[in-house]
Fold Bifunctional NAD(P)H-hydrate repair enzyme.
Amino acid sequence: MAFELLTPDEMAEADRLAIAAGPVDGIGLMRWAGGAVAALVLKRFPAVRTVHVLCGPGNNGGDGYVVARLLAETGVAVRLVATGAPRKGSDAALAAAECAIAVEPLAAFAPETGSIVVDALYGAGLSRPLDGDVVQAITRTAAAGVPVVAVDLPSGVSGVSGEVLGNAFAATLTVTFARKKPGHLLYPGRALCGETIVADIGVSDATVAATAARSFENDPSWWRPHFPSPAKDAHKYSRGHVGVFSGGPSATGAARLSAMAAARAGAGAVTVLSPGASLVANAAHLTSIILRRSDTLQDALAFFDARKPEVLVYGPGLGAEPEVGRFALELMSVAEGRFGALVLDADGISSLSHRRAAFFEVRKRGQPALVLTPHHGEFGRLFPEIAANGSLSKLERARAAARRAQAIIIYKGPDTVIAAPDGRAAINTNGTPLLATAGSGDVLSGIVAALLAQRMPAFEAACAAVWMHAEAARRFGPGLIAEDLPLALREVVAGLSG
Ligand SMILES: NC(=O)C1=CN([C@@H]2O[C@H](COP(=O)(O)OP(=O)(O)OC[C@H]3O[C@@H](n4cnc5c(N)ncnc54)[C@H](OP(=O)(O)O)[C@@H]3O)[C@@H](O)[C@H]2O)[C@@H](O)CC1
Ligand SMILES: [K+]
């Protein structure tokens, strides 16, 4: 699949393997990379008068020398600006030697209206914050308002984390090679890349696979084969039964949103487990969803034994009181032989922050399958050490939390990351600000639960749910509130099942 994400180190490994396999050597890859960028500049900016090509000291600069040479050969006016000569004997030095254009110093660089800038200063090798003339070049480029085409990454954006080191170009177009890097998809990097195009430079799929990359861009193409479609002889319980715990009388809506979403996402039966005090409120709003009283663990156990739900959703609307955390732990302790998976959301996560030691102890068993859906604040409460580790990207933080809790983590945000304890992780890219609306997280929990109940493998189910949730929001469009999402899912499910 072409949806692997390669860290700069994994990309360097892929380059090494590709060169070792031959026939292309290092300068060959560089010529191929520079050629792809030059072709895209000509295609996207056919009427451009002047192209400023900014070259750094490493191989990113080497790509820049190739771009400059090729554009000049087609008759484009090229101004070549460099931060210094590439290291003697390097591929970049070879590329520079092939480029006969006079080099201008970066300190004097100021692009004029009508020109464009090709940023080949720093890419995968960015190792510290940008400063001095480079920052001035970024400021002048922004002030001129001219388009920037970034080679591999906008200089200043970390390919590992998407973070800005010091300062960064804001590109119109970023051309990267072989595969995207996490920094193209994690914010703020994602916003600074503009459109990101992946150019083929002859690194084969087998070579990428040999790097053992464990990160992916979330995309239906790789989880769709696992997407459930009901068997011809299906009955409601064979299509999966989801139980959703409701909050008290003034907080019942969250559970119903989750329940409706689970039903729309294909669960054959959905039960809302309601405290006695909330029964009337829930009964007034539920039709196809089953309603059952549950005030105590004994009530819940009686339900499990009688109705055999596959998956439970615990958290939406429950409040972050200590007893909520205690009940979550009890649910995990009694799961064996009763239900297969638990989705913990919202208050179900926050309430565990006071019982972290007990939670991690219970999770050592790895049962039941657990999906946690924290946003940034909830993540920080349950995994404070991981959240505080500034050296980790969001992708790595989610991965570390998944290992720690032996759970699938859906670390929500504009760049939601889904991570599994086995090291796989995906970054979602179809998110929309429309989802920043009350109750939208409850809907996501319901979708995850429905897919798990239909026996979709947990990591794929979580990735699918995140994608479907965003897709439903996009299809509905402006004016969306959480109540609209379950119905909007219908079309999304139909598209995936067809
Ligand atoms: N054959 C291949 O491998 C292929 C690679 N390809 C291309 O190579 C790129 C990666 O090349 P790369 O590894 O040379 O790193 P690159 O981004 O040029 O920077 C390293 C230099 O920058 C310096 N430096 C870093 N940060 C700095 C700062 N803040 N301020 C100042 N200086 C700083 C750093 O100095 P150092 O840290 O060593 O002191 C070093 O000198 C990749 O993005 C792609 O475009 C393609 O051609 C396909 C084939
Ligand atoms: K760059």
Q: What stands out?
A: The first helix runs from residue 8 to 21. The domain at 220-497 is CATH 3.40.1190.20 (UDP-N-acetylmuramoyl-L-alanine:D-glutamate ligase).
